[in-house]
Design a protein that fits this description.
The structure holds two protein chains of two kinds. Chain A is an alpha+beta fold. Among the domains of chain A are: about 70 residues, Ubiquitin-like (UB roll) (Roll); about 200 residues, Aldehyde Oxidoreductase, domain 3, CATH 3.90.1170.50; about 170 residues, Aldehyde oxidase/xanthine dehydrogenase, molybdopterin binding domain (Aldehyde Oxidoreductase, domain 4); about 150 residues, Aldehyde oxidase/xanthine dehydrogenase, molybdopterin binding domain (Aldehyde Oxidoreductase, domain 4, 2-Layer Sandwich), CATH 3.30.365. Helix content of chain A is about 30%, strand content about 20%. In chain A, the strands form nine sheets. Chain A has a seven-stranded mixed sheet, sandwiched between helices. In chain A, strands 8-37-36-35-27-26 form a six-stranded mixed sheet. A five-stranded mixed sheet of chain A has the order 2-1-5-3-4, with helices on one face. The longest helix of chain B has 20 residues. Chain B has three domains: about 45 residues, no CATH class; about 100 residues, Uridine Diphospho-n-acetylenolpyruvylglucosamine Reductase, domain 3, CATH 3.30.465; about 90 residues, Enolase-like, domain 1, CATH 3.30.390.50. A five-stranded antiparallel sheet of chain B has the order 4-5-8-6-7. In chain B, strands 9-10-11-12 form a four-stranded antiparallel sheet. In chain B, about 30% of the residues lie in helices and about 20% in strands. By secondary structure, chain B is α+β, with helices and mostly antiparallel strands. In chain B, α8 packs antiparallel against α9. Classes of the chains: A alpha+beta, B alpha+beta. Chains A and B meet through β4, α4 and α25 of A and α4 and α9 of B. Bound molecules: FE2/S2 (inorganic) cluster (2 copies).
């Protein structure tokens, strides 16, 4: 039917199906700022538009219902002030405030946030923070913890009230310098993200925003059973359905065994998966792929595929996996082992690390503490779902435009699966709407690839939110036993962690995630005195298969699973032995100049290389965090803990100390290239993948610093396997460190070339200078006497005038070290002792991430990470029934924090200068995931004595622990 | 393939009833925003009620809203009452409150809905069309999935003298595991709606001063699911009930 929609005060006639969603119609009309979070049922708010001035979810409305109403999207609200000869009104105050405050990380939720804010400010120019939070409450953001978006709206309101942009200062984290940090121009400054304005305008920057003609829509049939053999599959009716272009089953695609883990070659894990198989191993496993003219037809076709299953016994509890007689989950002959994997025992990986003499250490202890802990399976819940689009280009090369953290790994890994040489695949990574590790998986690119090969046509596959829950990846759940030997004076003599890790149906990241669990947590406490020289640490893990959805990479990469047991255990020991929790921890913690204990014993299945840790700002983190949270006024202070007139309520305070890693030494490689343009600007090409972290900006800042230009003169492009140099991708907190060093090297080489040419040009003018005498500053090469030649002149000279050459450099970097960042996470909570309900009141994180390249983006990383960790603390978990069916299938049941319920979050940077990085930086992105859960657990213990061994700390667990405590007291 | 679905947007109630009467095949009622579009599947005609809404009537004593009114409109009907605001926040963020119509809300809301608990405690009523028959919300909820032609055109409730709400959840606006809404009318009678579990439990009617503890605990006796045990819910329900009674005695939560 034909309808007329009033979109942004323009009437548009469109032909639609009466049942079409407004969201889909708007996107078909080209309003790509309106996003789908995959839920299409009102959970995420990514699809926000204004309808008659109110923020609404466009997925909940039919297009036809919107006829006669005013629909507003973000597109017209502001644009670049100079579009060639056409001057515009520029960006709106809201766009400016979002960009300048750092409220935009991945930017997928940004148009929705801006519209929700506009709806508020259009009638209330002086909103309270509570009103702003309520206005944003319908838009979920997984990146920012809403701190900066709220700040941006309040600032925009102020600017609107004043009628001008005044006071552009935004709340920055406190910075404390432990080491002397060299002065810099661009590095260390809160530069606006290079992609901020593009995202604030809702430009079509994401994978699904490319509106290709002739595109087919892919859908996947998922297994309803946890474990079964497909006896027969009949797709004839589906294939016969008009509008269906292809249906693929395991009989139609090559049987190539692979792993979906996006890691360097050789993948450190078993190869145990096929694009499609005759065995399904979890509810949600792939059964068939469909490509059709519309998503609705594809859905219809799925219903027509007849599958006959022979149900097999399923293992849903990791403790059952290795029992004698357990059903074998992988018996395919193509299975390729890695290290100690043993599919006959359902063992995807095995880790046995002994450092020092652990048994001797236990013998020397005055007391030994043993306890068991458990951590749940949780979901990354990025707001942009997995999405890929593939098509043949005019050279018969397969182009895959995909939301991935690992474009180069994807290309390499897909080649055998699709039976194409690497050179005939091009992977393009546009903007990514969040990934948090889940897009380190080459999860769906094969699906669109197979379907394009089958049909010859472009194919788009966007996972639904439900598919994200039942068939993407998650954080490994683990059961962990801790045993710790302690001397009377508080010295740890031995520390042991035994983990049973559940990788689900496939072993992607099985070894490396679980290895990290021990490697990055158990390394923190080495003991004191003589034990520092030779700590006694044991970490054993079995990583087993079960018939549940596969686990994989999730920001933190195994480390949060280590810190829950470790830091809950340390707290328990401190309390039982009467030690101050902070002093006890610091007494035993790793110090500068000591070996990373695990570096002497383990390296992800490769040869270990001992590594000294030089920068440890932990003690200062404790000092700063302690002051910021008011530890000394609160800890053991009953006046603070008790609430007058509310005997059912109690406050508590807790802490957890943490460390992470920075990249994987001797393995992860990043590269960058730089070329100069006629006007003295530079193209910086990086294979590194900015998934919202701001890494493009940080890398550009590093280049700008060396080249003496403002940030705007560095045009960053990332990433495209045809054009950008190789990079392992965005994981392991490595971009600033590894790719950043590559950028710094490429920039240093470029600076050399520029100086050489400038020296020649100065010589032409009669000035004799050595290149080494010149410095680059203010877009110029500057001689010692102050004479300068602009970079634009130098570029013109090199490109057009004499001894013409393209000034271009390329550099790569692989690190021999992995300097850990450190942090002290503090939490305060309010517990209702009658109901067990916990409310987190404040989270303070003091972190040593080396030199902070961009304080705003780094602070955003911390805030967003802490918010995810807060969910891990109190609410997030994935639960399965006795048939292996997921309880959490949407963002209603899998609750992630909203803007209107966040506790206070405070960040403090303790800056050390890490000499192994050209600018002194360490990693920042993953460490905030580690400490919030145990700090909250410890705060709950402090508040009411409930000692919860398994997160999340839910009301019933607290209530039960308190009931147990009461009964043991009686 | 099926012919294209028809679409009708009547101008008023009379026209809507007339149109409904004339329509053949499967008619899907379309009324404001919805979570669930499954009702549209296979529909021959979409009957859009957006113009059928009554003018919102909010007086001292009564609230009347049309099917197209949203949760935000319902919230606006309460001039006072922080606890009611909490129930709405726990129900959904602002976008959903602005988009979801009461019509579609009542189609899908289950026992985990805090706003439904409020409406049940206030003994809301609906006017069913065609025919204009007044039915209780309880009756509507019992039969809402029975396929029968028609729609409700009015939701109304008398403002109780006092309404209070308490819940327990993992986070401040997460879906509650246990929820209680208690309304007191001018005669001092209490209506207690329990929530926090998918299935709808019976609304309890208590006379003033009656010991509702037992009854409230009883309401959760069999209510066990993966979110919480019955034992926990029973305990917490009695705790919340006592708190609510304490508050209602001070009328901390007036609807008027
Ligand atoms: S709320 Fe519309 S796509 Fe999620
Ligand atoms: S910036 Fe909000 S979802 Fe990424």
């Amino acid at each position: 039917m034909k309808i007329t929609l009033n979109i942004n005060h323009q009437f548009q006639v469109c032909e639609i199906q009466p049942t079409a969603r407004l969201l889909d119609t708007l996107r078909e009309l080209g309003y790509m700022s309106v996003k789908s979070g995959g839920c299409k049922k009102g959970e995420c708010g990514a699809c926000t538009v204004l309808l008659d001035g109110k923020s609404v979810n466009s997925c909940m409305l039919l297009s036809v219902q919107a006829e006669g109403h005013l629909i507003e999207t973000v597109e017209p609200i502001g644009q670049h002030p100079e579009l060639g000869w056409r001057k515009t009104k520029g960006y709106s105050y809201l766009q400016k405030a979002f960009a300048e405050s750092g409220a935009i990380q991945c930017g997928y939720c940004t148009p929705a946030m801006i519209l929700a804010a506009k709806a508020l400010l259009d009638f209330n120019l002086n909103p309270s923070e509570e009103e702003v939070r309520d206005a944003l409450s319908g838009v979920l953001c997984r990146c920012t913890a809403y701190v900066k978006p709220v700040e941006a709206v309040l600032k925009a309101a102020k600017w609107l009230r004043e009628g001008e942009v005044i006071d552009v200062n935004f709340d920055l984290a406190k910075k404390v310098q432990v080491d002397k940090i060299p002065e810099t121009e661009i590095v260390g400054k809160s530069e606006i993200k290079v992609d901020a304005y593009k995202l604030a305008q809702g430009k079509p920057a994401f994978t699904a925003d490319l509106n290709l003609k002739d595109v087919l829509y892919a859908k996947v049939l998922h297994s309803p059973l946890a474990h079964a053999e497909i006896k027969a599959i009949d797709a004839s009716a589906a294939r016969a359905l008009p509008g269906v272009a292809a249906v693929l089953t395991w009989q139609d695609v090559p049987r190539v065994v692979y792993s979906t883990a996006g890691q360097s070659d050789p993948i450190p894990g078993p190869l145990d998966m096929f694009s499609l198989d005759h065995r399904v191993r979890f509810v949600g496993d792939r059964v068939a792929f469909v490509a059709a003219e519309t998503p609705e037809i594809a859905d219809e076709a799925l219903k027509l595929i007849k599958v006959e299953y022979e149900e097999l016994p399923a293992i849903l509890d990791s403790r059952e996996s290795m029992k004698p007689g357990a059903v074998r989950i992988h018996d395919e002959p193509e299975y390729v082992n890695f290290a100690d994997s043993d599919p006959s025992r359902n063992l995807a990986a095995e880790i046995r690390i002994d450092i020092g003499n652990v048994d001797k250490g236990f013998n020397e202890a005055d007391r030994i503490f043993e306890e068991e802990y458990e951590v749940p399976k949780v979901q990354q819940a990025h707001i942009e779902p997995h999405v890929s689009l593939s098509y043949w280009d005019e050279d018969d090369r397969l182009v895959i435009r995909t939301s991935t953290q690992v474009p180069f790994h994807a290309r390499r890994m897909l080649a055998p699966v699709l039976n194409l040489p690497v050179k005939r695949i091009r992977v393009i990574k546009p903007r990514i709407g969040g990934g948090f590790g889940n897009k380190q998986e080459v999860l769906i690119e094969d699906i669109v690839g197979h379907l394009t090969i089958a049909t010859g046509r472009p194919v788009l596959y966007e996972m639904t939110r439900e598919e994200e829950f039942i068939s993407s990846r998650s954080r490994h759940p683990m059961r962990v036993k801790m045993r710790t030997g302690v001397k009377k004076d508080g010295t740890l003599t031995a520390n042991e962690m035994i983990a049973l890790s559940d990788t689900g149906a496939y072993g992607c990241h099985a070894l490396t995630v679980t290895g990290n669990t021990g490697h990055k947590s158990m390394a923190l406490y080495v003991g004191d005195g003589e034990y520092r020289k030779s700590p006694n640490i044991r970490f054993y893990a079995d990583v087993v298969y079960t018939n549940t959805p596969p686990a994989g990479a999730y920001r933190g990469y195994g480390v949060p699973q280590g810190y829950w047991p470790l830091e809950r255990h340390m707290e328990m020991i401190a309390r039982k032995m009467g030690f101050d929790p902070l002093e006890f921890r610091l007494k035993n913690a790793l110090r500068s100049g000591e070996f990373h204990p695990f570096s002497t014993a383990w390296n992800e299945g490769r040869e270990p290389v001992p590594e000294t840790v030089w920068t440890v700002g932990l003690a200062e983190c404790v000092k700063q965090g302690r002051a910021a949270i008011g530890w000394d006024e609160k800890y053991n202070n009953t006046d603070w803990k008790n609430i007058p007139g509310k005997p059912n309520l109690a406050r508590g305070i807790g802490v957890a100390l943490v460390m992470q890693g920075t990249a994987i030494p001797y393995l992860d490689m990043g590269a960058a290239s730089l070329k100069i343009n006629d006007d003295g600007s530079f193209n910086l090409m990086v294979g590194a993948t900015d998934l919202g972290t701001g890494s493009d900006t940080v890398l550009a800042q590093m280049a700008a610093e060396t080249l003496g230009v403002p940030l705007e003169d560095i045009l960053v492009y990332s990433s495209d396997t045809d054009f950008t140099p190789f990079d392992k991708g965005a994981y392991a907190s490595s971009t600033t460190y590894i790719s950043g060093t590559a950028v710094a090297k490429a920039a240093a080489q470029m600076a050399e070339k520029i100086k050489k040419r400038a020296a020649l040009m100065f010589a032409d003018e009669g000035l004799n200078v050595q290149p080494s005498d010149l410095k680059l500053a203010g877009r110029s090469a500057v001689a010692p006497d102050g004479k300068r030649i602009s970079l634009a002149e130098i570029a013109l000279d090199s490109l057009h005038r004499q001894k013409q050459e393209q000034l271009m450099t390329v550099a790569s970097y692989v690190s021999p070290s992995s300097p850990p960042p450190f942090g002290a996470q503090f939490a305060t909570v309010l517990v209702d002792k009658e109901t067990g309900q916990v409310r987190v009141e404040e989270l303070v994180f003091a972190v040593d991430s080396g030199v902070i390249i961009n304080p705003t983006t780094a602070k955003g990383q911390i805030e967003g990470g802490v918010a995810q960790a807060l969910g891990y603390a109190v609410s997030e978990e994935m639960v399965y029934d006795e048939k292996g069916r997921a309880r959490e299938r949407d963002l209603a049941d899998y609750h992630i924090f909203r803007a209107d319920e966040m506790p206070k979050i405070k960040t403090i940077f303790v800056e050390t200068y890490e000499k192994s990085h050209p600018l002194g930086a360490k990693a920042v992105a993953e460490i905030p995931l580690d400490g919030a859960a145990p700090a909250v657990g410890n705060a709950v213990l402090d508040a009411c004595g409930a000692d919860i061994k398994d997160n999340p700390v839910t009301p019933e667990k607290v209530w039960k622990a308190l009931a147990k405590q009461r009964s043991s007291q009686n | 393939m099926k012919n294209e679905t028809g679409y009708i947007r009547p101008e008023d109630l009379a026209e809507a009833i007339k149109a409904l009467d004339k329509m053949e095949g499967k008619v899907a009622i379309v009324c404001g925003g919805a979570f669930d579009r499954s009702a549209l599947e296979g529909a021959d005609t979409l009957l859009d009620l957006q113009n059928v809404s009554v003018e919102h009537e909010v007086s001292e004593a009564q609230v009347v809203l049309g099917p197209n009114a949203t949760l935000s409109d319902l919230l606006a009907a309460f001039e006072d009452g922080e606890t009611v605001k909490d129930a709405f926040a726990a129900e959904a963020g602002l976008n959903v409150r602005n988009t979801l119509s009461l019509y579609n809300f009542l189609q899908v809301a289950d026992g985990r809905s805090s706003v439904l608990a409020l409406l049940r405690a206030m003994d809301a009523e609906l006017v069913w069309q065609p025919g204009g028959q007044v039915i209780s919300l309880e009756r509507y909820l019992e039969n809402r999935h029975v396929d029968r032609p028609g729609f409700w055109s009015k939701l109304s409730f008398n403002k109780p003298e006092c309404i209070v709400f308490e819940s327990v959840a993992r986070t401040p606006v997460d879906k509650p595991i246990v929820a209680l809404a208690v309304a007191r009318d001018s005669d001092g009678k209490l209506r207690v709606a329990t929530g926090g579990v998918t299935a709808l439990t019976k609304v309890l009617q208590l006379s003033e001063g009656a010991d509702g503890r037992e009854k409230v605990a009883q309401a959760f006796a069999q209510v066990e699911d993966t979110w919480a045990s019955a034992q926990y819910r029973q305990h917490v329900a009695t705790v919340l009930f006592e708190r609510l009674i304490g508050r209602i005695n001070h009328c901390d939560g007036g609807a008027k």
